[in-house]
Amino acid sequence: MATPTKNQEKxxxxxxxxxxxxxxxAIALRLAEDGHNVAVNDVSANRDALQGLVGEIRDxxxxxxxxxxxxxxxxxxxxxVTQTVADLGSLDVMIANAGIAHVQSLLxxxxxxxxxxxxxxxxxxxxxxxxxxxxxxxxxxxGKIIGAASIVAYRPFALLGPYSASKWGVRGLxxxxxxxxxxxxxxxxxxxxxxxxxDMWELIDEKLAAEEGWxxxxxxxxxxxxxxxxxVSVPEDVASYxxxxxxxDSDYMTGQSVMIDGGIQFS
Length: 267
Ligand code: NAD
Hints:
GO terms for molecular function: oxidoreductase activity, acting on the CH-OH group of donors, NAD or NADP as acceptor; quinone binding. By secondary structure, the chain is of the alpha/beta class. The chain contains 8 helices and 7 strands; from the N terminus they run E-H-E-H-E-H-E-H-E-H-E-H-H-H-E.
C-alpha cells in the first residue's frame, strides 16, 4: 500500500488516455499512489501493456480497468467513458493525454499527415473533454479535466509544424472549455512538458536526425542543451504536476496551460 499523501483526502475516479507507456503510464501510477481509482485507455495494439498496468494499479489497492479506444473516434470515446463509469462508479477526473508526433518540413508535409496529427492531438482531446464534461454535468458534482499540451504550445519547434499547431490548439481549447464549464464546477487545465525521455522523443530524435543529416541522439542532445535544470525530463516530473491538477489543491485554478520543462521556455 502506498504511503498516504495529502492528495488522498478525497479519492476520485480518474480516466487516463494513452496510458500504455510514457507520460500517461506515469500519470496513472502516480494517481493510484495518491489514492485514486484509475481507468486506463490506449489503442488495441497496446492491449497487453494496458492490462499489465491495470494489474499494477490494483496491486496498490485501487480499482482499475482498461478501455481500448482510439480517441479520434467519437463513438469509441463515448463507449470508453460509459465503460469507465460502469467499472468505477463515476468519472471525476479526465486526463486527455494521448498524442502522436510527426516530424517533417511544412513544404513537404502531406495534408493527410496534417489531418492524422490533428485527429489525435486536437480532435481527440476535444472529444475527451466534451464527453467527460457531459458525464460530469450529469453527475452534478463538478470535476477536473486535464489535457496534454506541450512547450510547443508556446514556442513551436521547426519540423514539428502540425504537432506544434495541434498543441497550440489544445491551449486554446482548454481556455474556452474552462470559460464554458466553470458554471458546472468543472475546471479545465493543461500540462506542457518540455523534452521527456519517452518513445515519442526516440521517434522525434530519429526523424530529426534523418531530416537534418544528424547522428542518432544528436537532436536530443542539441535540444537538451537549452534546459536550465540541466537534464532531460522523466515522465514522473509531469505526473507530479498532474497529481496537483487532479487534487483539491488546484481547485481555484482553471484555463491554464503550465510548462513543466526544466526551464526551457519562460511564460
Ligand atoms: P508516447 O508516444 O510514449 O505515448 C503515447 C501513448 O498514446 C501511446 O501509448 C500511444 O499508443 C497512445 N495513443 C496514440 N494515439 C492514440 C489514440 N488515437 N487513441 C488512444 N491512445 C493513443 O508519448 P508520451 O511522450 O508519453 O506523450 C504523452 C503526451 O504528452 C502526448 O500528448 C504528447 O504529445 C505530450 N508531450 C510529450 C512530450 C515528450 O517530450 N515526450 C513533450 C510534450 C508533450
